[in-house]
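Sharing a chain and its predicted structure for anyone who wants a worked example. Both blocks are below, sequence first, tokens second.
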Amino acid sequence: MINYYHILGVAFNATEVEIKAAYKSKAISFHPDKHDGDKNMEELFKQVNEAYQVLSNPYKRSKHDMMLKYGASVNTTVTPTYRRQYPPQSRKYYTPAMSNLKATAYAFLFAFTIALIMKTGMYIADEYMAREKAELLAGRRSIFDQVKSAHQQGDLGQSLQLLSDMGYFWSEEQDMKDFKDYLLDEIKDIGDQMLADGEFESAISHYDMLKDYSVSNTITYMKKMAVAYQGMGDVGKALEVYQMMHLYGYRTTTFYLEMGMLYERGMRDLNQALNYYQIGANLASSEYEITIGSAYPIVINANMVPASHYHIYMKVAETHLKLKEYQEAVEAVAWTKEIWTDSLLQYSIEAKSLQALGRSSAMQNVVAHAQSIDPDFSIEKDLFDR
């Protein structure tokens, strides 16, 4: 028998909160959209949904627990029997004794009775399951009526909540699944329009609805929530959303760049900003080593990397400069100059750092090289991205 506790990875006495949290985590991990339609992941995703539907329903969970505790398998092993060999008789034909005939008849009758009982039992079980399924589908149809009623009254949150609590849809419920997809798109479109119109609080309320029920797009909606909080001037809330994204396992170079900029521009915390910039830069470098090899510093060029990598490397160097960590700033651009050979920003950072270190000759060489790219280059010109 399937153990739904094992599928969700929770204890037998897990609370509803623990079961729901485990379900969300597993659903995010196994969602087919995150695995390019991998059939194995799709099957795992269905099992997780099925496990949650049982364990989140007190009645179904009770039945499941009883089956786990008292269920037993039937031993179907048949012990072979051997016919007794009789010595040759003087008679031409052997006539079985009456007692043997009776035993054979009783055995046949017993086997026939058992088979009939099993067949009848299977028929009754099938009928019971069919009735139980019909009752279940009827109950779910009643809930769907409430869903449509809430939608008509404009309560999109309640409509989505009721639909999502229904979990995985049966083949007979394709219209319910289609309605849920439509509802998710409707809420997203309204949220996007409100965000564009500067109605940040309303936009946040719509994205907040979606992040728990649209598993494959959770991170997208959380990022939009962070943008809305920034629009409201609440950087602290935006950072909370980003930290939650990190807990969800979202780790990209762009993520760490945005996180660092929130600390730098919103919180005016350069040290924490540098920490996230450096994590992002290290992540980018590790990607090069995995895809290109340990010789990536001498092989890589600007056409091989995304623009976000350039920005995060420059942010590391720029933040070192702002923190007056001049030698670290020089070292930060030491190898990037070989990738982005025409980037004036890194030459500006290097020249200012060398000037602060009192290395005038080296600083003049950097300025001369930068001016060979752009004659208007000047160390006094502020090239930092504000």
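Comments welcome. Confidence is low (pLDDT under 50) at residues 72-83.
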